[in-house]
Amino acid sequence: MSLRDAAAARHPSYVERLGRLVNIDSGSRDLPGLHDVATTLAAWCTESGLATRLVPVYDAAMAPLGDAVVARVRGTGTRRILLAGHLDTVFAAGTAAARPFRVDGTKAFGPGVCDDKGGVLAGLCAVETLLDTGRTAFGELTLLATPDEEIGSVGSRSLLGRLAVDTDVALCLECARENGDLVSARKGVADVELLLRGRAAHAGIEPERGANAALAAARLTVALQELNGRWPSVTVNVGVLQAGQRANVVADQARLVVDLRADRTGAFDEALAAVEALSRRPFVDGVTVELAVHAPTPPWERSPATGRLVELAAKVGAGIGVPVRDAATGGCADANLLAAAGLAVLDGLGPVGGNDHSSDEWLDLASVPDRVALLAGLVDAAARDGV
């Protein structure tokens, strides 16, 4: 049986499973929902013959973030291949009830349908397709689904690092771009939090005794935004600005959260240094700034190894009638961390979808059999040909 035919035979099961997962809220840190999706996926993996375990994930303060699913199957060869996706979404509890999974024509809708439940299930379906057709040239094939990718994989980084040591190739299950492109490079990202501390005073009687943290935050915001354009492809966005509590009090505190992204390591480091330098400038006398960088993730620059994976995917795609192109994207993902660990990485290997993180998120169900066959074929080719 061909990979395409085997993938098509599993399509009804894929759609049924997708509906079940999408209808479970699993926003980052939603522990009950994340437990439900992890145990559901783990049960399917076990039913398909994979050795499956749940790995508890914690943040730096040892607060639980949910369980990662790690499912493995041994083959007949030597190459170790990792399929990596995630179970968490950006949506609050209650979203699945408010707009549950639905299918309209060839498109499926619902929270996390594309990012990344559709991708994770494509990974499992690809493993099953390989087993159905007896294509086990890999040494070991591992399916990973983490619970915290949407918050920077703050707890899963150590697990990703451990798995990378025992992996030759990482194929990541974020969905393909809307035009079908695979992803061969991603910007790095850092969330920079700046806490400004000033001095309160009565705004009408003695404002001169205060040190206005709100004013300092406003001036710092302008300076930060002006970093845009200094380096090609670097973006700096002040996404959160909070200050003060009452209009008749000189604000003694303020908070900024900045999203910084770059597609080159050198530019990423320089831009981060520029943000740190601005935090030391005295925008208002008496106001101090504390800076913290949360979950910095380095850029993933397209490497020769990734280029070879693209070529291999194109060869597989030509055999099943799926054109393969690749592109860089500004979004960050676990592919960045796996590439930083030294692996050959290719991403965007889930089905075609779009409008991630919005109420209009969609997945093209018609693309699923082709994309599952492409992923399964790439696993087989990477196991046989090496990268």
Automatic annotation (TrEMBL):
Residue ranges of the Peptidase M20 dimerisation domain?
Answer: 185-283
Q: Active site at which residues?
A: 88, 149 (proton acceptor)
Which UniProt keywords are given for this protein, alphabetically ordered? Hydrolase, Metal-binding, Zinc
Lineage, highest ranks first: Bacteria, Bacillati, Actinomycetota, Actinomycetes, Micromonosporales
Q: Which organism is it from?
A: Dactylosporangium aurantiacum
TM ranges are: none
List cofactor names only: Zn(2+)
**The UniProt record lists the keyword Zinc:** yes
* GO MF term (any one): metal ion binding
Q: What is this protein called?
A: M20/M25/M40 family metallo-hydrolase
